[in-house]
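Example (one chain per record):
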Amino acid sequence: MQQMTAKVTNGWADPATFAVRSIWPWDNHEVVHVITALFGRPSDFFNEGIAVAMSVDQNGRWESALTFRSHGELPRLSDMVETDAFRRLDDA
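Predicted structure:
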């Protein structure tokens, strides 16, 4: 995957060709990108948020967000909504 995308990733979607490339036999996250592309292309904040929400168990995610917020580590919404700002965030 890294050789093809120049990124460390498990997969990616190519909505224009209705294709998903993944190391997994089925990748909900990438399939969501293909499906949502039929409705348009939102900023990456929303595009990735929708895909993550549809592909992972959210129970531990809210606890993590609350922990980050209590430590002042959760970015302001205004610092994440636009694609360029979202892409500058650390994935960790």
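Caption: Helices lie at 2-5, 28-36, 44-53, 59-70, 83-88.
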